[in-house]
UniProtKB/TrEMBL annotation:
Name recorded for this polypeptide: Peptidase
InterPro entries noted in UniProt: Peptidase_M14
GO BP terms, alphabetized: proteolysis
Record's keyword terms, sorted: Hydrolase, Metalloprotease, Protease, Signal, Zinc
Keyword Zinc appears in the UniProt entry: yes
Gene Ontology CC annotation, any one: extracellular space
Signal peptide region: 1-20
Annotated organism of origin: Candidatus Lachnoclostridium stercoravium
Pfam families in the record: Peptidase_M14 (PF00246)
């Protein structure tokens, strides 16, 4: 049984060293949870209609460990049936392995301000697509009735459109959840298998293939999309020269269709704020060396920290989507939110923690855009 095998491999995986560039836990995970719960109870004391208190009576998006691309597509269809007049389902491209890159937009279609909430750019961080799909469902269900910090969502959504990109790297999610057989393309499977062999030879890994696939962050040909953007890309010196589970920056900046699609969408609008969900560490990265929107990015980070209790950190690397958004022409206040306090793929026991601290994240970005954007 795949699930038994996965559970065993996961249990083994949890004992290994974290491969993330930074696994900062500047405070205990319990501290952040207490802060998030305090923030929610404070909001409740002031306003029983705060979005942080709203639960779907009959949710379409049901939290599970392996929240798959196919499940997400199915759930988007259900949400469309229920809330079709409130949402616009679009796409910003197609993945290497032929999967649609979804963009779901809510708010007044004529509104001039735009917020982006994106997740799942790293395959093994597939709890973040679930988070963003749950955010989307509560946004749709309570858009007319709930508030954020006393401000009616309805009023804010008159002036701001919120674009949800729940799974930027669906091929990587499929690999981490199902192994290389999760890829439809024989050629891509070959590239990934060769990448694994080279990683073994170069001692970038010493795990069995079963475990190796679980850790895959990259796309269908082993490029880490969040170091594939043209923001300090040339200065990334740790990249292998081949497909890998992590750390391969690609042959050139924006070499990948997922990167290109996201950049084209980013260049289509002037963004008031972008939020990128990752795992793990319970921190918010808000800066970059050439950041053109430094103060604004910090303010956005502070708004998200006020509900999550996460710690603010300045920067964590190069070539990331956030980094590029902060340095490109027409830059946008942007943050990377590292959810969760366990190694990826995070065990399902992290879900309540991740949801509690980040459920209003989209509304926090909306509030920031409405007032400051
Ligand atoms: Zn990540």
């Amino acid at each position: 049984m795949r699930y038994d095998r996965l559970a065993l491999a996961l249990a083994a995986a949890m004992s290994l060293t974290c491969f993330a560039p930074v696994c900062a836990l500047a405070q205990g995970p319990g501290d952040a949870l207490m802060q998030a719960e305090e923030a929610a109870s404070e909001a409740a004391a002031q306003d029983p209609d705060d979005i942080s208190l709203k639960e779907s009576a009959n949710p379409a998006v049901k939290p599970v460990m392996l929240y798959t691309y196919d499940q997400m597509v199915h759930d988007i269809g259900i949400l469309q049936g229920r809330y079709g007049n409130r949402m616009r389902v679009g796409s910003f491209g197609t993945s290497l392995d032929g999967r649609t890159l979804y963009e779901i937009t809510i708010g007044n279609p004529n509104a001039g301000k735009h917020v982006m909430i994106q997740a799942g750019i790293h395959g093994r961080e597939y709890m973040t697509p679930l988070l963003v799909m749950k955010q989307l469902e509560t946004a749709l269900e309570f858009a007319d009735t709930a508030n954020y910090k006393g401000e009616p969502l309805k009023d804010m959504l008159e002036e701001v459109q919120v674009h949800f990109l729940p799974m930027v790297n669906p091929d990587g999610v499929c690999i981490s959840q199902m192994g290389f057989e999760g890829l439809r393309s024989y050629d891509l499977r070959q590239i990934m298998e060769e990448g694994y062999e080279k990683d073994l030879e170069e001692e970038r890994t010493d795990t069995t293939l079963d475990k190796y696939v679980l850790y895959c962050k990259g796309n269908g040909r082993g490029v880490d999309l969040n170091i594939n953007f043209p923001a300090g890309w040339e200065d990334i010196t740790t990249s292998p020269g081949h497909a890998s589970y992590t750390g391969y920056k690609g042959e050139r900046p924006a070499s990948e269709p997922e990167t290109k699609g996201l950049m084209a969408l980013a260049n289509r609008y002037h963004w008031a704020a972008t939020v990128s969900y990752h795992s793990q560490g319970e921190v918010i990265y808000w800066d970059f060396p050439e950041n053109k929107v430094r103060e604004a990015s910090k303010e956005l980070a502070e708004e998200l920290a006020s509900i999550s209790g996460y710690t603010l950190l300045e920067s964590n690397g190069k070539g990331g989507f956030k980094d590029w958004m902060q340095v490109k022409d027409d830059p946008a206040p942007s943050v990377t939110v590292e959810t969760g306090a366990a190694e990826c793929p995070m065990p399902f026991s992290q879900w309540e923690n991740v949801w509690t601290k980040n459920r209003s994240g989209w509304a926090a970005a909306l509030y920031y855009a409405f007032h400051k954007g």
